[in-house]
Inverse folding.
């Protein structure tokens, strides 16, 4: 035990000895149940730090990254956050792949006054506003609002909701139920499924049989939505199907089968449809540049929305460090809060004292699956 | 004066708890220390169940979950003070263990392992799916018990990790003391007798079913207290704590350190909590190293690290 303690101490000393550079910390769920989110995040963060350093760092100083994998466990995330702040003496943190890990990290960030940019969806992270906590992904509530907006424009007002019982699905379901009424949408069916279920035909049949139903919305992430899309085709349901922003990736089309997924709509970021964007769109250049460098660094693995969140967080953070008068956590925090007009892959960020998310609904684009690819609606 | 094994165990434990902080360069080490203690509390419960009584539970994380969520739900929904919630959580865990264990423990063999496995999975599912009550898979915030503020008003200022290091250490010490006392009590002797041979124990007048049930209830209370302490110091609890993998981790800690000895269990908890922290340097190989350590211990030191080391120290003469 003593040997382990001395070993840890020695490692810690070695780490501090080498730190004349600017040190930033990252905690992501590279392994575990949220690894499909955390893995592209970790790759993006590593890639961007490397890129920045080959370009000469920030103001001549190299960026040093300390990245820990919390495997999706909030208790581990909290320990690593304590470690980053207390032991590695980082000036800022990025990460928190899931809402649970983000909430665990933000408690440490607030207590030790180190800025933290979260990569998780839930609105609780930045509402109420906490001085040292920011986030880059749009909230689930915004996804619901965007979908409802599109439904209403097509005259679809009586809908059925089917949700996964995992963190993503449960959180989005709650938000959709909250904002449905004010958006003029009536939810006439509300079914759930386990994230690993292999067949959702009973739930879908239940929903289809509700009188007057006009569309179905699935708030879910991972395998579930693909299964639903396949079941949808097997049952021959012709109602419009909406999926969540959580499945906005080419892998989803492959999993569900291009034929089954034809016509499915979902809110996504510009990242997926970079080539289709209007050349005047300010996001086009950013999105294509990130896509190219990620796919090169990841050996051909496709970009995902989640890597995009990490990209935006790193852009905001490195931009703030460059602008801040000193590399002290408090100065960096002020510079992050002063970020405006920063074009990321997710949207254009305008942080302020009262808004630590900085995105509006225009960040989302409604995409439709068309011939095995994506089509911009509107 | 020669110290009894009980006294020396407690002395070693107290010395390690008090001396270690002198080597801590930052609060992070207190945080890891307090996590070691929390896991060790649950593992001491497993030592009583598995080491003393020879019963295996694969669902103890379920009780950790009950204890943890008691500290979140009772204060939030019913306004119970968090300190009282720890006690109520422990009572509830004990009662549930009694209800689950009573029919099961009349049977011989692996029934407890299977039933507790199902029980643990059920608890985790309820916690994840009943979002209106538990906050769902993203977890729920836990209120501050206010103990640190109380100490501050008495003039003792500790950082958050320091406070939890001291508090969890104290609870672990009391837990270990109780477990060691139990070892030599009539109840403990009955447990060890039925571990050796249920038939022989019954012949000697031990109420086997009742003794097993006692061990199961006591170990559930330990797990519940550990869960409460984890929830209170994290100020957040998620359904993962009740998950199957966490149950396995707890049993692994006990078996690795030596399920038959309290100090062994604590050592196992310390080792498996510290290793992932040390191994972040080579995090890609973390699971490989953990697996290798487990295999080597099982092959070469089947009684667990501490009991095997003790035997080695005493030499062959014994």
């Amino acid at each position: 035990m003593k040997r382990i303690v001395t070993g840890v101490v020695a490692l810690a000393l070695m780490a501090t000895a080498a730190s004349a550079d600017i040190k930033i910390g990252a905690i992501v769920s590279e392994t575990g149940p949220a690894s499909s989110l955390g893995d592209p995040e970790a790759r993006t963060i590593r890639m961007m730090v490397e890129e920045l350093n080959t370009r000469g760092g920030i103001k001549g100083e190299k960026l040093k990254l300390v990245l820990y994998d919390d495997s999706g466990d909030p208790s581990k995330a909290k320990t690593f956050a304590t470690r980053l702040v207390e032991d590695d003496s980082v000036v800022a943190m990025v990460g928190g792949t899931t809402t649970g890990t983000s909430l665990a990290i933000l408690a440490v960030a607030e207590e030790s006054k180190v800025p933290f940019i979260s990569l998780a969806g839930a609105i609780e992270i930045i509402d109420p506003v906490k001085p040292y906590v920011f986030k880059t992904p749009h909230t689930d509530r915004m996804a619901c609002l965007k979908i409802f907006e599109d439904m209403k424009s097509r005259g679809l007002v009586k809908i059925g909701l089917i949700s996964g019982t995992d963190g993503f699905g449960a959180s989005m379901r709650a938000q959709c139920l909250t904002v449905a009424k004010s958006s003029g949408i009536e939810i006439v069916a509300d079914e759930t499924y386990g994230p690993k279920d292999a067949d959702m035909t009973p739930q879908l049949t239940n929903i289809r049989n509700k009188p007057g139903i006009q569309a179905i919305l699935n708030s879910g992430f991972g395998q579930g939505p693909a299964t639903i899309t396949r079941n949808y085709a097997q049952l021959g349901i012709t109602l419009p199907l909406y999926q969540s922003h959580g499945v906005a990736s080419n892998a989803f089309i492959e999993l569900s089968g291009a034929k089954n997924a034809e016509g499915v709509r979902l809110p996504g970021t510009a990242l997926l449809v970079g080539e289709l964007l209007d050349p005047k769109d300010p996001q086009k250049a950013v999105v294509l540049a990130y896509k190219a460098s990620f796919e090169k660094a990841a050996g051909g693995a496709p970009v995902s929305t989640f890597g995009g969140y990490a990209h935006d967080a790193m852009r905001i953070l490195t931009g703030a460090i460059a602008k801040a008068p000193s590399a002290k956590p408090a100065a960096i925090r002020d510079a992050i809060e002063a970020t405006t007009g920063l074009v990321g892959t997710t949207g254009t960020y305008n942080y302020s004292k009262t808004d630590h998310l900085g995105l509006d609904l225009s960040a989302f684009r409604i995409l439709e699956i068309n011939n095995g690819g994506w089509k911009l609606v509107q | 004066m020669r110290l009894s094994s009980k006294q020396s165990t407690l002395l070693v434990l107290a010395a390690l708890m008090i001396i270690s902080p002198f080597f801590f360069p930052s609060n992070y080490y207190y945080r890891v220390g307090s996590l070691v203690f929390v896991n060790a509390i649950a593992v001491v419960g497993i030592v009583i169940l598995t080491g003393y009584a020879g019963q295996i539970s694969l669902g103890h994380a379920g009780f950790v979950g009950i204890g943890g969520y008691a500290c979140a739900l009772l204060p939030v929904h019913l306004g119970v003070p968090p300190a009282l919630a720890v006690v109520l959580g422990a009572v509830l865990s004990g009662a549930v263990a009694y209800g689950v264990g009573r029919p099961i423990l009349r049977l011989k063999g692996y029934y407890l392992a299977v039933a507790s496995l199902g029980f643990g999975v059920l608890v985790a599912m309820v916690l994840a799916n009943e979002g209106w009550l538990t906050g769902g898979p993203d977890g729920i915030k836990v209120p501050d018990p206010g103990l640190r503020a109380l100490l501050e008003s008495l003039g003792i200022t500790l950082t958050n990790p320091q406070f939890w290091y001291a508090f969890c250490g104290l609870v672990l010490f009391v837990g270990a003391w109780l477990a060691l006392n139990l070892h030599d009590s009539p109840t403990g002797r009955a447990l060890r007798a039925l571990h050796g041979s249920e038939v022989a124990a019954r012949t000697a007048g031990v109420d086997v079913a009742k003794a097993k049930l006692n061990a199961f209830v006591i170990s559930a209370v330990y797990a519940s207290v550990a869960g409460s302490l984890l929830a209170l110091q994290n100020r957040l609890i998620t359904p993962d704590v009740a998950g199957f993998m966490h149950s396995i981790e707890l049993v692994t800690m006990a078996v690795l350190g030596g399920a038959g000895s309290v100090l062994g269990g604590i050592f196992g908890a310390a080792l498996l909590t510290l290793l992932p922290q040390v191994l972040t340097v080579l995090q890609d190989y973390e699971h490989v190293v953990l697996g290798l350590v487990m295999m080597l211990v099982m092959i070469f030191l089947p009684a667990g690290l501490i009991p095997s080391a003790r035997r080695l120290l005493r030499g062959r003469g014994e």
